[in-house]
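Target chain:
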Amino acid sequence: MKKISLKIVLTLSLIFAILSCKGQTFPLRTAVENVPNLSHFKDINNELSPFVGKYSATYNGKQITLFIIQENNKLFNFIDKDIYIDVLSIKYIVKNSSGATLQDTQSMTFPAHQLRHTIYSQWAEDNGNKLLFYYGGTNCGVGWGRIELKKLNNTQISWEYRPNDIILDDSKCPPGTDINIYLPEAKDLIFTKQ
């Protein structure tokens, strides 16, 4: 009888320990260093959904279409912990003035921890009217940088993209690789919801 009771106590203790290790939920604007591993940054204040949708703009003869979707519980790896975050993800199509596609990430799927071609929201500012994004760049990391979206009204957002510099050589990027930046390097470019 004692063996059965001890097994039950040990089993219940193990179940309790496993359930206790589950991450806690925090608002989006919480600093990563202030939370335990496997925490969840949740869009508690509904800062992301006003940006969701399909948006278009024309810039320097190119037609750019953004597809902004919300992904909940997206796992991100930080240096010393994994955090689940509700994010916006931007996929896009860029076409030239003739209608030929220059770059299309709309149908791409991204394995965990891949940054190339990804655009994920990082945090909201200005009472949720401005979102900052990290762009992982394209081939060989070209164009990686920061994107800022501001909500102007129910149908328009303002775009600002600031790519960072990168030095390329044959050891970092094979010759013949497309290293063009197709996203508009612009400030205050207006995208309209479709």
About this structure: The longest helix spans residues 2-20. The chain has one domain: 24-193. Residues 24-193 form one domain.
